[in-house]
Automatic annotation (TrEMBL):
The lineage of its organism: Bacteria, Pseudomonadati, Bacteroidota, Flavobacteriia, Flavobacteriales. SUPFAM superfamilies: Glyoxalase/Bleomycin resistance protein/Dihydroxybiphenyl dioxygenase. Keywords: Dioxygenase, Oxidoreductase. Residues 6-35 form the Glyoxalase/Bleomycin resistance-like N-terminal domain. This is Glyoxalase/bleomycin resistance protein/dioxygenase. InterPro entries: Anthracycline_SecMetBiosynth, Glyas_Bleomycin-R_OHBP_Dase, Glyoxy/Ble-like_N. One of its GO terms (molecular function) is dioxygenase activity. PANTHER family: GLYOXALASE-RELATED, VOC DOMAIN-CONTAINING PROTEIN.
């Protein structure tokens, strides 16, 4: 299991090409196309699949979504878990909300999307 506090991040954008140009200019990074699990989602990873170690992330464009709204946050950080349903099971008792229960993300494992007690969106990620 990943031993970093955060294992993945997503920065949501309304124009992925504009965002790629911005981050490439500011950080000097290249982006790599990622296959998405939904036709309405375009993803570009900050690291190539061969170089994804510890923490990596992606720019994400959701067709028709406006960033910084209830339906589309601006950023999501994902916390690694052994089985994200365990941590998900504690979210509501701690004052949070489950947005999307544990779901498969194909060969990349599983994730849950939640909102913390302060209204921040975060994700839980596990391989089982």
């Amino acid at each position: 299991m990943n031993t970093s506090v955060i294992c993945w991040f997503e920065i949501y954008t309304e124009d992925i090409e504009r965002a790629k140009k911005f981050y490439s200019s500011v950080l000097g990074v290249e982006f790599y196309h990622m296959p998405a699990i939904d036709d309405d989602v375009i993803m570009a990873a900050f690291s190539s699949p061969e170089n994804m170690q510890d923490v990596s992330g992606a720019l994400v464009q959701v067709k028709g979504a406006s960033v910084n709204t209830k339906s589309c946050p601006s950023t999501i950080v994902y916390f690694p878990c052994i089985n994200c349903s365990e941590e998900e099971g504690r979210v509501e008792k701690a004052g949070g909300k489950i947005v999307t229960s544990k779901m498969s993300i194909g060969e990349h494992g599983f994730c849950s999307i939640c909102i913390d007690s302060e209204g921040n969106t975060f994700g839980l990620h596990s391989m089982e």
